[in-house]
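Database export, one record per block. Field names are fixed; values are copied verbatim from the stored entry.
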Amino acid sequence: MPDAPDTAPAANAGARLRELGLILPKPPTPLGAYVEVNQVGSLLFLSGTLPIVDGKLAFTGRLGGNLSVVQGQEAARLAALNALALVHHHAGGLDRVKKLVKLAVLMVTTEQFTEHAAVGDGASNLFAQLFGPQTGHVRVVYGVPSMPKGASVMVETVFEVDNGKESRP
């Protein structure tokens, strides 16, 4: 049976974040001519977020090359925290999130690398801790040859939010 903190409803995501001792970073800004968040109805579509800490990439390189699965998981977790910072800013708080609908985790890998799912768990596990495993999400993980700024991992997310309040532009 799961521990009570892991089954917290999505409405308590802000409190769970504090319980876990996590602090959201400053929301990332676009690297090009696009917006970071686009809301359609109750869905928030986020552009890909990178594992940035204090304005710098925390991980560069290739999984299966100079990066381990554990480092990939941490990179995915950091990228997920940056996605949460965007949601918090756009929606006016994480407690407006009903659930994570979809997660895509892209990673720069060697051709021999096959542990994509384990790396993706770095993001999935964080979202499950915050929104509860019962909310679930669909996910795709895949390797790519390169990414912006030499990043090793990127997450792309779609969240469902409570539409009862106005969101920020």
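Remark 1: The two ends are 41 Å apart (CA to CA).
Remark 2: The chain has three helices and seven strands.
End of record.
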